[in-house]
Design goal:
single chain, alpha+beta, Arc Repressor Mutant, subunit A, Rossmann fold, 4 domains, about 50% helix
């Protein structure tokens, strides 16, 4: 059996083949960029990796703000349980870069073991097994809970993760398989944003209606009529009899009724998107979890990881139930590269999927299965991926080299993000738009500069927004040249940033880009050349070509001071690319500086050659 080489640094193993991390038998999924950062550090242990080296290795020919690296380092330290003050794995070298300080050795695992995570996959009944990929470990945990449920132990399971990560797909496949294989009952309630503020128990009532109107619902109706008549009356399923006021709906009576219903056939209550649930629903779930009597009753709930703000009652409920061991949480991370290829094979209905397509989808979807499927459909709609064949025989073929393709943001994803944005206030939308001018990571001072607002007030507003929405997170703090500190934030996915950037008018974007560039110059007064490259990008985005070219000249001079002659030449060549917007005198000056940089490169190259020893 083929073996796979792993990089081991106790207690972890880095699996480059499947782009994931192992801790014992636990597979830890990482998004593509954080994984790439960790892999580069692990493959170069013990030496200083400068910021520039890391950025050039992972983002060749693309300028990326240093804050992006800090964001990924924070994420990696959290996963590794590392402490920046006393590092066991990643040491920060101030103003220079990072060093991987743990001892790294080679380890081996069989290809089959690495692919499945050394966890015996649990087969799911019927066609359900084909509906999800890359979730063998999570399915195994659900199967274990199902066995405890069948033995009469009440269960509470929370499935968490980002939008599109596959929570609903996993729950649906599991519940259908459980009902088909074991004859269990399942009833579903969907939480809806805004409804919880006006209607208590909305998802509970939906689940009860589902339960009572199912083919086997007569038993449930009789039990509710006898033990919890107020709840049955509110469903409007009784043709006669006086209605019981809603205020008489008592959680205790419903808990007892559900327990009796589940006595004959195990029952799974599914609640989707608990981050939008009302307090009354959460209290009922807490009561069901805390009751001590045995019951063949499972509450299976989903919620968005970043949709739960600090102080939200769901966060408190989850923490309390986990501490009391009355609940388990199954957190879904991004799919690894191998699982993503399996997903594409399933969607395309073929075992033959080009590696370039898999790499493109994996990188741009960042391991998110919903985003991957939407991107795949988008590539097909745009004719970048076409079916070559007829009569059912053929294969999918790429019509272009995806390395140079800008496929844009699929309309389906853009509309999804727009719906989330429209729920925000005008001020909050402006904050996000200004943040998108930078990159995946954006500092609060830059948002304030773009909007022309007070820096302290803007940072407070960004903090509040990061707690409110799921696609922006607080990512740390940055020290400014004047000694002040400014928080910075990160979009959880590049697609959100792209939608927010494109929804701004060209004139508004240009104005904001220029403000950010000018603020950079003010912050680094006297040392503008240090940030001239970044300033040039903002001026170019605003189509202020002259200022962009001049900023690149400044950046090139700074590069030459550092003996980085190749970088200087690259900057000057890009400045010449806008020659039509420059005066003839400026063009000649840039050409002269470019020639000097090239000559310096040649001298450096000659000096670096080994001279053979004459005997």
């Amino acid at each position: 059996m083929r073996s796979i080489q792993l990089k081991q640094f106790a207690p972890f193993r880095l699996d480059s083949a499947n782009e994931c991390l192992w801790r014992g038998d636990e597979r830890i999924a990482l998004q593509p960029k954080p994984f790439a950062v960790l892999r580069y550090l692990v493959e170069n242990p013990g030496r200083l990796i400068t910021h520039d080296e890391l950025l050039d290795a992972l983002w060749p020919e693309t300028y990326v703000q240093p804050q992006v690296l800090r964001t990924y380092m924070l994420e990696l330290r959290k996963i590794l349980g590392d402490d920046a003050a006393e590092p066991r794995f990643i040491e920060t070298m101030p103003k220079r870069g990072y060093r991987f300080v743990a001892a790294v050795t080679e380890a081996e695992a069989s290809a089959s073991a690495a692919g499945r995570g050394w966890v015996a996959p649990v087969a799911m009944a019927g066609e359900a097994a084909g509906e999800i990929v890359g979730r063998e470990e999570e399915v195994g945990r659900l199967q274990a809970e199902l066995e405890r449920l069948a033995a009469g132990q009440r269960r509470m399971v929370m499935v968490s993760g980002e939008v599109g990560i596959g929570k609903t797909a996993l729950v649906d496949a599991f519940s259908r398989a459980a009902c088909a294989a074991s004859g269990m009952m399942a009833a579903r309630g969907q939480c809806v944003p805004g409804v919880g503020r006006t209607e208590e128990y909305y998802p509970v009532m939906e689940a009860l209606r589902h339960l009572c109107t199912a083919p086997e619902g007569e038993t449930a109706r009789r039990t509710l009529k006898r033990m919890a008549p107020a709840w049955l009356a509110m469903l409007g399923l009784e043709a006669s009899g006086a209605e019981v006021p809603a205020r008489e709906r008592m959680p205790g009576s419903l808990c007892a009724a559900l327990e009796e219903i589940s006595a004959t056939r195990p029952l799974i209550l599914i609640f989707e998107d608990l981050q939008w649930a009302d307090s009354a629903t959460l209290n009922l779930i807490a009561a069901l979890a805390r009751r001590r009597a045995g019951a063949k009753l499972m509450v299976l709930a989903t919620f968005r990881t970043r949709g739960v703000a600090t102080g939200h009652p769901l966060k408190t409920l989850k923490q309390e139930l986990l501490m009391q061991r009355l609940c388990i949480e199954i957190a879904l991370g991004p799919l690894d590269a191998a699982a993503m290829m399996k997903l594409l094979r399933r969607e395309l209905g073929t075992e033959s999927v080009q590696q370039q397509l898999g790499n493109f989808i994996y990188v741009h979807a960042e391991g998110n299965p919903l985003f991957a499927i939407v991107l795949l459909r988008h590539l097909i709609a745009q004719k970048f991926l076409v079916w070559k064949g007829k009569n059912g025989e053929g294969e999918w073929k790429l019509t272009a080299d995806l390395e140079g393709v800008d496929a844009g943001v699929p309309d389906e994803l853009a509309q999804m993000v727009e719906l989330e944005i429209e729920r925000l206030t005008a001020k909050e939308q402006s904050l996000l738009e200004a943040g998108s001018l930078m990159n995946i990571a954006f500092p609060a001072w830059a948002v304030a500069a773009a909007l022309g607002t007070d820096a302290a007030e803007t940072e407070e507003a960004c903090d509040a927004l990061a707690q409110k929405i799921y696609f922006v997170q607080h990512a740390g703090q940055d020290e400014l040249p004047n000694g002040a500190r400014s928080a910075f934030y990160a979009f959880t996915h590049g697609l959100y940033r792209e939608v927010l950037y494109q929804r701004q008018s060209a004139a508004r974007r240009a104005q904001r880009h220029i403000r950010v560039a000018e603020r950079l110059g003010e912050l680094f007064a006297g040392r503008e050349a240090h940030v001239a490259r970044e300033m040039a990008l903002h001026f170019d985005a605003a189509e202020s070509w002259q200022r962009g070219a001049r900023a690149r000249r400044d950046a090139a001079r700074y590069a030459r001071e550092r003996q980085a002659h190749a970088e200087a030449a690259e900057l000057l060549e890009k400045a010449l690319g806008r020659a039509e917007h420059l005066s003839q005198a400026e063009v000649e000056e840039i050409r002269g500086e470019l020639e000097q940089a090239r000559q310096a490169m040649k001298k450096t190259s000659k000096a670096g050659r080994k001279v053979p020893l004459k005997l």
